Amino acid sequence: MKSLEKNICKHFFLYATLLFVCACGKKIEPLPVTNDAQISFYNASDALLGQVFGNTANSNNFVFIDKPDTNYKRPENLSYSIYPCFTTITPQSFPHATDSWLTFMRISSGSHKFYLMDSAKHLLDTAVANIKSDVPVSIFYTDSLGYFSHYVAADAFTRQDKKIGLRIINLSPFDQPVFLTFNQRAIDSLPDEIRYLQHTGFVPVNMATDSLLNIKAYQQGDSLDILAATQLRVYPGHAYTILLSGYTSNNPGSYTDPLTGRLVFLQTTYAIKVFQNF
């Protein structure tokens, strides 16, 4: 009996040794990394805001990822949604922005398609973004008289001593170019004017100490009539986004929605919004 137990132990030891040797000789592939990148969504569209607040009983403008999942059923609690969505709770940003900081959800790096839907799951816009793990991406949505557009912001920022980064995104469907002043002066490194759907990357601007910037927007050629104004506290070594959105008082008053045929009345909603990015 002892001899049998001894033989079993001997064979088990040899088998375990063989497995260990084989494992050491095999190339072990690392596990794939998933959700290694970041993305956020921002709604600067008057038409989309109208949908969100106009359907308060069933407000859910989803952004489907990689395929338009029209069979997806809205969960009773939208915090459990597997897709980004604009709601009466998060009407402008997803995930919800806090204290002028855009927040981000996790996503795998690589190329993705994003399908913005209305509450009846009609397609409003399709965006494509190649997302890198080291550069957070934001997709900004807008519209002009019901025709939707987007801007994919994937701008890298390099910190520099005594400098800040300023990025301007113009998503206002105002048909005239505008210019910005900062504490009643133009900044030479920023463009003289910017039109609808134009944008800059993070432009380095000299800023030796923390400062309060009084930002004003004007129509090009008119330095008296202020379209909108805001303030931004900036700190050297950080980066900020200046977003222009909404209609000025110089709008057509109304338009026929191209999707529903409904008459939509416009209001003056022009605004400057600011975010800290880095």
Describe the protein.
With 278 residues, the chain is mainly β. It has 2 domains: 33-154, no CATH class; 156-278, Immunoglobulin-like, CATH 2.60.40. It is 12% helix and 38% strand. The chain contains 2 helices and 18 strands. The strands form 5 sheets. Strands 1, 4, 5, 8 and 9 form a 5-stranded mixed sheet that branches. It has a 4-stranded antiparallel sheet with strand order 3-2-6-7. Strands 12-10-15-18 form a 4-stranded mixed sheet, with no helix packed on it. The longest helix is centred in the first third of the chain and has 24 residues, at 2-25. This is DUF4397 domain-containing protein. It comes from Deminuibacter soli.
In short:
With about 280 residues, the protein is mainly β. It has helices at about 1-25, 45-55, and strands spanning about 35-45, 60-65, 85, 95, 105, 110-115, 125-130, 135-145, 145-155, 165-170, 180, 205, 210-220, 225-235, 240-245, 255, 265, 270-275. The strands form five sheets. Strands 1, 4, 5, 8 and 9 form a five-stranded mixed beta sheet that branches. A four-stranded antiparallel beta sheet has the order 3-2-6-7.
Looking at this protein, list some descriptive labels:
globular; 278 residues; Immunoglobulin-like; mainly beta
